[in-house]
Design goal:
Number of domains: 1
Structural class: alpha/beta
CATH class: Alpha Beta
CATH architecture: 3-Layer(aba) Sandwich
Strand content: 15-25%
Distance between the termini: 54 Å
Low-confidence stretches: 1-20
Shape: globular
Helix content: 25-40%
Radius of gyration: 18 Å
Oligomer: single chain
Order of helices and strands: HHEEEHEHEHEHEHEHH
CATH superfamily: Alpha/Beta hydrolase fold, catalytic domain
Length: 307
């Protein structure tokens, strides 16, 4: 029954389109206590621009590390402004600049459209770091959920092209595997991101490749398919024990570390998917925030130099 309902949603993603309406209203919101800027980043393929938000700590002296942050939302929904609380915590931990692109959703265009937007935003941050008060040698890629998967994908792509030296990557509970057999089984009362959500999200993202009957799905789309995980930038990541993504996130973190990379990773008991959005005052959420802030500060000091 649930699988049939998921397929019904896939064919009728009107509900997702409705949720995107909130992004228009959210785009008007600024982050209090920070310098807010808006830029339109040209796409390298000449196909329009990428609406992008830039946030800076007020009165901070540069050049500062630059965090290119990719929002969550199952690749299909979401917008940069929904993560103001995350940006605020990162900037409070260490003065840094947040570059947050509103990349194309899979509803509008399947892979590689949104991923290309994110990579274009990374290159823009590299080329314009000084003009926004940042340090082009201290660029970080980060994101949560689907945005975390894109962060890892972007780190893989940057490694392969050699175009950007990423100081470290921060994929938080990232979506990295489209194979449902690798998803964790959880009690129904602890699931906020379900198998049906995952089936729908990956279908929308990969539908272009599947329509072409492509069986060689690229690792940039599904990072869990990567066979070479060596020479990646240091990684900071976590996942909740009550997250359907737990198995795939734990597996990719272990594989990245086994490939010889510096990995800081933790599984948090009692934490479910996107818990910081749903119950921000719960103790597991507070524990995660404290850990991320401490480790983010350590990574900045270690890989970007003290600021």
């Amino acid at each position: 029954m649930k699988q049939r309902f998921a397929m019904w949603l896939i064919k009728r993603p009107a509900g997702l389109r409705f949720s995107l309406r909130g992004s228009k209203k959210a785009a008007l919101r600024d982050l209090e206590g920070a310098v807010n800027e808006r830029v339109a980043i040209p796409r390298r393929d000449g196909n329009g621009t990428i609406r992008t938000r830039i946030y800076k700590p007020a009165n901070a002296k540069g050049p500062l590390p630059v965090v290119v942050y990719f929002h969550g939302g199952g690749f299909a929904t979401g917008w940069p402004e929904r993560h103001h609380a995350i940006y605020q915590r990162l900037m409070k931990t260490r003065p840094c600049i947040i570059v947050a692109p509103a990349f194309r959703s899979s509803l509008k265009a399947p892979y590689p459209a949104g991923h290309d937007d994110c990579y274009d935003a990374l290159l823009w941050a590299r080329d314009n770091a000084e003009s926004i008060g940042g340090n082009s040698q201290s660029i970080i890629v980060a994101g949560n959920s689907s945005g975390g998967g894109i962060a890892l994908s972007t780190a893989l792509r940057a490694r392969d092209t050699g175009e950007v030296n990423i100081a470290f990557q921060m994929p938080l509970y990232p979506m990295v595997d489209d194979r449902s057999k690798n998803w964790s089984a959880l009690p129904k009362d602890k699931i906020t991101w379900t198998k049906e959500h995952g089936v729908m999200a990956w279908h929308l993202l990969l539908r272009g490749l599947r329509a072409e009957k492509r069986y060689d799905i690229p690792a940039y789309a599904v990072p869990a398919l990567a066979t070479d995980l060596s020479k990646l930038s240091p990684m900071l990541s976590y996942v909740g024990a009550d997250d359907i993504l737990m198995n795939e996130v734990k597996d990719i973190a272990e594989r990245v570390e086994a490939a010889g990379n510096d990995v800081t990773f933790r599984v948090f008991d009692g934490l479910f998917h996107a818990m910081e959005d749903n119950v921000p005052d719960a103790q597991p959420t507070i524990d995660v925030h404290n850990w991320v802030e401490r480790e983010f500060g350590r990574m900045i000091d270690q890989h970007c130099g003290a600021t």
